[in-house]
């Protein structure tokens, strides 16, 4: 056997190893002259690995090896990235186990990115303090960077984000004059919407300096500074009493070991008479969050199983009133984002370079595939204390204007 | 001090002890000449304890002492039983701790009433094999013995039970020709409704002989025996493949230690492509179920925290799509039942005697108070496997006919 033949055999074995790790997805893997895997007769999709280091890295940790390889241009995709990832995720659901290396690196990351107050600040800075111009390229005009709600499939992203803000406000049953706390307020769209349309006063917290600056400027522009206060501080420092608590897209960032603290924040802000809504990415069952996403995109993130998130409410004796799973809406939201992103690739590249372009493409495409396949879920949980007087009779008011009015007038406390 | 004075002092101390155990509810406690507690200036409600044994029992275990004392006529109520219980439950939520005796008896009961196959049969026989004529006195005409769904406050019980069956069927998105398994089918109302209105075929399981006999007769009367099979067997013996799994009011009876078995039944009946609905009484957080209810009314019952129930779905990797809390509807359902029950008290007494009359009045009244105060919750959980193709786009179709039709036509699988 010549040296070339031996190497070819080794590479072929490594490719087979990777194929074994990613499961039975109908994707062709290519390295140099080697090609393995079932060629899809209609689509001819393949993953082309450009160098040996990447090949070896993918054997050690297929997720991180693929992620960094793709980001650095050492892996190329023939075909549709979202579809390829979706097929791989579907087949991994049954066969996928983490390698020892994958587990080790995952645990090390978790340790390094802990969400102490200082850790949270660094983790959030990494993602959310990228300049706002970047997010303007591909988010909707109000910069809502969470799952939208599409009343119909044909709604635009702008319409769907507005519908999401409305959906959240309706679920909270906001009344004029009430006090609301918004934990993890992003660029302020929800806080401003609540003040503008529901006449409530809002204290909105965020530790991203860039976002808070932007939100404050928006409040000034709209003349809402009397009603909305944007506070650059950690959720653990929220104080004062409120009628309602809302948090959209923060839970994923606080880390499971801090759920108890979040629960105590709820108790001291809304007590036994308040209600709240938590909107977060979740899972069917506990699992560590994607190592690559945590390494490159969202340091410190943990995506809880629904059951794990419910511990927050259980410990404080809150009643769960409503849970809605909007995972298909997140897939659709991300499709809009990715399409806009692709149209702005040149601008992104001039801001951050080609590696960044590829990393964020992979993050958006991988997220679409995760929500489509059910690897990730999106939950909206409405909860209330036992003395809360804002428990809706049915949920019809969320969907029909007539039922909404009827519900308001019919509301009577359960007490005789 | 005379003997009479000493006894009076002892009794007074026992009354104070009871008052301490039930908390700060504005209820007057009376024994012989002794009266303690804040007299309600408007209502003059009081609990009159007739003998020393009951007084002592209430100190050892206020719940069981009160329950058995009331049942046996050794405690009398001046005022409205539901209101008194509601006030006691509200004040117990903050102060109530079980006595050592209460805990001991509670644990002993749990041990004695285990839900092995034989144990379940005995437990279910105790409650559900009371003759059907008894339940006909106070349930709706279709004998639906679970929480109803009142589209409006003024709906009748008959309308609300029919609306509940519809609500469940819509949530399940039943399609003609599908196969459905109904676990714990009661007198068969839901199984027959699904067959009649949705064109599905149903296998319905129940271990109550009396109920199964009744359900079979109904199926024959309606000519639905080809579509609906009523099986007198334990849920653990369900076999065959189905598109959807539904269980309304069974989870409370199977015992927490059997949730794993129930999960495996789900997996082998609907697999990864099916969906299901579980309707059950739940709690905000784990606690033993009322000792008195378990002793006298529902042997073997356990009411789970929502989080505990979700373990069933989590272990099988099902996605929770929707959770609705209908606890105020259960309070209202029970108000209807209690009113009908009171109108039939003479018939009940001639069937089972006055102790039974009082025991069931207390059970119905106590349940109203429990749902009003949030000691108990009523959850409907919709879940689905990751390959399920019946995930609704929004929940609007549950509430508006137009959205329902739109939703049907818009449905496209998430795959490209």
TrEMBL record, chains A, B:
<dbReference type="GO" id="GO:0008168">
    <property type="term" value="F:methyltransferase activity"/>
</dbReference>
<dbReference type="InterPro" id="IPR003333">
    <property type="entry name" value="CMAS"/>
</dbReference>
<dbReference type="GO" id="GO:0008610">
    <property type="term" value="P:lipid biosynthetic process"/>
</dbReference>
<feature type="domain" description="DUF7884">
    <location>
        <begin position="37"/>
        <end position="95"/>
    </location>
</feature>
<keyword id="KW-0949">S-adenosyl-L-methionine</keyword>
<dbReference type="InterPro" id="IPR029063">
    <property type="entry name" value="SAM-dependent_MTases_sf"/>
</dbReference>
<comment type="similarity">
    <text>Belongs to the CFA/CMAS family.</text>
</comment>
<dbReference type="Pfam" id="PF25371">
    <property type="entry name" value="DUF7884"/>
</dbReference>
<dbReference type="InterPro" id="IPR057206">
    <property type="entry name" value="DUF7884"/>
</dbReference>
<dbReference type="GO" id="GO:0032259">
    <property type="term" value="P:methylation"/>
</dbReference>
<dbReference type="Pfam" id="PF02353">
    <property type="entry name" value="CMAS"/>
</dbReference>
<keyword id="KW-0443">Lipid metabolism</keyword>
<dbReference type="InterPro" id="IPR050723">
    <property type="entry name" value="CFA/CMAS"/>
</dbReference>
<keyword id="KW-0808">Transferase</keyword>
<protein>
    <submittedName>
        <fullName>Class I SAM-dependent methyltransferase</fullName>
    </submittedName>
</protein>
<keyword id="KW-0489">Methyltransferase</keyword>
């Amino acid at each position: 056997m010549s040296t070339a033949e031996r190497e070819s055999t080794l590479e072929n074995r490594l490719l087979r190893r990777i194929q074994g790790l990613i499961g039975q997805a109908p994707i062709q893997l290519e390295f140099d002259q080697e090609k393995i895997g079932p060629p899809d007769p209609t689509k001819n999709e393949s993953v082309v690995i450009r160098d040996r280091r990447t090949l070896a890295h993918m054997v050690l940790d297929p997720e991180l090896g693929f992620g960094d390889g793709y980001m650095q241009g050492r892996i190329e995709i023939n075909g549709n990235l979202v579809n390829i990832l979706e097929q791989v995720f579907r087949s991994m659901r049954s066969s996928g186990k983490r390698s020892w290396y994958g587990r080790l690196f995952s645990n090390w990351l978790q340790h390094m990115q802990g969400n102490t107050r200082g850790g949270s600040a660094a983790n959030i800075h990494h993602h959310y303090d990228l300049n706002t111009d970047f997010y303007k390229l591909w988010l909707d005009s109000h910069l809502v960077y969470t799952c939208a709600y599409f009343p119909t499939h044909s709604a635009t992203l702008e319409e769907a984000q507005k519908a999401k803000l409305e959906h959240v406000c309706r679920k909270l049953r906001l009344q004029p004059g009430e006090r609301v706390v918004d934990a993890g307020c992003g660029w302020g769209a929800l806080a401003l919407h609540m003040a503008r349309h529901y006449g409530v006063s809002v204290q909105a917290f965020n530790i991203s300096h860039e976002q808070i600056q932007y939100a404050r400027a928006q409040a000034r522009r709209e003349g809402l500074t009397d009603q909305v206060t944007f506070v650059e501080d950690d959720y653990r420092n929220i104080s004062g009493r409120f009628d309602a608590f809302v948090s959209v897209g923060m839970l994923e960032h606080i880390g499971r070991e801090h759920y108890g603290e979040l629960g105590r924040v709820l108790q001291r802000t809304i007590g036994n008479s308040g209600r709240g809504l938590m909107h977060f990415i979740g899972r069917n069952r506990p699992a560590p969050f994607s190592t690559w996403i945590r390494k490159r995109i969202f340091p410190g993130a943990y995506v809880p199983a629904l059951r794990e998130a419910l511990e927050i409410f259980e410990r404080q004796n809150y009643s769960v009133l409503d849970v809605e799973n909007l995972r298909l809406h997140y897939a659709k939201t991300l499709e809009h984002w990715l399409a806009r992103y692709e149209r702005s690739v040149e601008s992104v590249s001039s801001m951050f370079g080609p590696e960044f372009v590829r990393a964020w493409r992979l993050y958006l495409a991988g997220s679409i595939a995760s929500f489509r396949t059910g690897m990730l879920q999106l939950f909206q949980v409405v909860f209330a204390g036992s003395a809360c007087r804002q428990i809706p009779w049915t949920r019809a008011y969320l969907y029909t204007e007539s039922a909404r009015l009827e519900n308001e007038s019919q509301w009577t406390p359960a007490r005789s």
